[in-house]
Write a sequence for this structure.
């Protein structure tokens, strides 16, 4: 029989998120489920590069740190869903299973969801890459990864098989929450209205502190208490909507303003938010403050799910170098401009291995170009070179030119440089039926 | 006056597209946003930062506007060489818009 409500919290919003707020939530007794989003657009391509270098890698790098949380939370009847798998769900499951067994936690059912890796499908289909003006087939061996966004269906299948821990690859962010909500409340995944409501909750929880006062303050107009100690959001969901809050004693705020900025974050047409599960309509959402740091949300609607699944394709673009140097005091802009002129001459000499570069002055024009110019004078600027190259050597040679600006215009200081592989991630779309998913269970 | 005095915003990214949602602190100021913060004015404010179109979606139920800026992130979050690849800072540029209040 289905429950009348479900309690669920956020455990992570990206691959580098803090662990402490997740531990606090897992021990609070306030949530039965926790969803962990571990992926941003580029995370998967970087994970795929790690997997190519070492077949046992390419999954979330926090798993050993998360084992104690999972061991304790599941022992108390809690269930965890996460896209910890990144580019290698099997390796993530192995690490969880080994860690849980070592911790003495036997009998934990761990589900692995596979099938989001669609590299061979996009190559066979010559799938279009609209933002690159090319196709997968034409890009050939420079494509390093392709992962389709996966919805709630395999999560529900895993939970129906009594999984305590569900591990997938590119499980879509809101689906990490839509799965358990629909499973626990008995909502059919073809009931678009219900799935739309669940997706609203998922969107509020998936970004973690974005719903509790993170990426929000703008003093003196927008200020929240104790932003150094933001809590993760949690929700109690029923057919009447959702009550969203955070743990008492944590910093930040859960109110109409923080909710509005998150509900419409990274959404285009608010009447057509596309996920693998549904076309969600957030135009009629209502938010009510019912107590301090407690809101009630509802009113989301849903239409049929898209027939195409979004795919993120990782493309090897060579290398990226960055280098920075600071100039201060009178005439600092003029000296930085002279340094820029020197760099342009030196980079020209490096030839065709330089694919593209830009030079900005931080403190002057690096964020908004010429669109924002409040004053004629500044105390200091930091020149920033960013360069895309065909080879690692060319990137190193380019950023060396920033270092050599110690001997350029007077008083340049504080050089920092970096060289790294440059992986671009670009969207594509694949018919849903081209993606076949598999759920496999292991018991510790 | 500046939009920042009466409104708040957040910007996000999807590949080469940026979205910025903006809301008034007081619901009663929503008509000022509707009148003053047009797609044309936002496009003019961002200038060459945005190569594609600027679309505006109205969300009356939550007194919000959502701006979608195409080809706005220098080729995309992972491809661009810009210092702020996500356009996280775009919300602050939007709030610098000069507006006429009712009074």
């Amino acid at each position: 029989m289905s429950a009348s409500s479900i309690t669920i919290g956020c455990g992570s919003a990206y691959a580098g998120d803090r662990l402490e707020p997740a531990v606090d939530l897992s021990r609070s007794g306030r949530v039965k489920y926790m969803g962990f989003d571990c992926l941003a657009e580029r995370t998967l391509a970087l994970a795929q590069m790690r997997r190519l270098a070492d077949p046992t890698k390419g999954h979330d790098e926090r798993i050993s740190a998360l084992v104690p949380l999972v061991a304790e939370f599941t022992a108390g009847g809690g269930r965890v869903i996460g896209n910890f798998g990144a580019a290698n769900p099997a390796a993530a499951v192995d690490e969880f299973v080994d860690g849980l067994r070592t911790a003495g936690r036997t009998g934990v059912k761990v589900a692995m969801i596979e099938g989001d890796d669609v590299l061979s499908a996009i190559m066979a289909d010559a799938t279009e890459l609209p933002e690159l003006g090319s196709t997968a087939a034409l890009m050939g061996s420079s494509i390093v990864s392709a992962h389709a966004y996966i919805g709630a269906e395999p999560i529900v299948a895993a939970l129906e098989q009594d999984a305590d821990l569900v591990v997938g690859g590119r499980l879509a962010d809101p689906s990490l929450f839509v799965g358990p909500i629909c499973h626990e409340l008995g909502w059919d995944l073809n009931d678009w209205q219900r799935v739309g409501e669940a997706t609203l909750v998922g969107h509020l929880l998936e970004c973690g502190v974005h719903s509790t006062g993170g990426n929000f303050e703008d003093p003196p107009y927008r200020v929240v208490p104790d932003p150094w100690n933001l809590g993760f959001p949690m929700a109690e969901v029923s057919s009447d909507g959702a009550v969203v809050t955070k743990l008492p004693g944590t910093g930040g705020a859960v109110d109409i303003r923080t909710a509005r900025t998150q509900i419409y974050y990274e959404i285009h047409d608010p009447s057509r938010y596309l996920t693998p599960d549904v076309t969600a309509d957030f135009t009629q959402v209502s938010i009510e403050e019912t107590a301090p740091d407690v809101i009630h949300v509802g009113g989301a609607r849903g239409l049929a799910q898209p027939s195409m699944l979004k795919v993120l394709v990782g493309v090897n673009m060579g290398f990226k170098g960055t280098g920075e140097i600071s100039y201060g005091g009178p005439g600092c802009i003029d000296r930085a401009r002279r340094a820029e002129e020197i760099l342009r001459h030196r980079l020209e000499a490096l030839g065709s291995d330089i694919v593209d570069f830009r030079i900005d002055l931080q403190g002057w024009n690096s964020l908004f170009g010429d669109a924002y110019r409040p004053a004629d004078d500044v105390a200091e600027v930091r020149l920033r070179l960013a360069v895309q190259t065909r080879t690692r050597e060319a990137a190193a040679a380019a950023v060396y030119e920033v270092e050599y600006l110690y001997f350029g215009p007077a008083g340049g200081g504080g050089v920092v440089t970096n060289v790294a592989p440059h992986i671009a991630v670009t969207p594509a779309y694949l018919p849903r039926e081209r993606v076949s998913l598999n759920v496999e269970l292991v018991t510790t | 006056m500046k939009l920042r005095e009466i409104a708040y915003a957040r910007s996000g990214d999807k590949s080469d597209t940026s979205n910025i949602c903006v809301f008034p602190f007081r619901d009663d100021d929503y008509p000022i946003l509707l009148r003053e913060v047009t797609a044309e004015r936002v496009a003019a404010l961002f200038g060459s930062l945005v190569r594609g179109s600027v679309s505006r979606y109205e969300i009356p139920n939550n007194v919000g506007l959502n701006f979608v800026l195409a080809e706005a992130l220098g080729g995309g979050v992972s491809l661009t060489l810009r210092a702020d690849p996500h356009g996280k800072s775009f919300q602050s540029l939007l709030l610098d818009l000069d507006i006429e209040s009712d009074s």
Summary: The domain at 316-425 of chain A is CATH 3.30.70.100 (Alpha-Beta Plaits). Chain A has two domains: 5-115+150-306, 316-425. The two ends of chain A are 27 Å apart (CA to CA). The first strand of chain A starts at residue 5 and ends at 12.
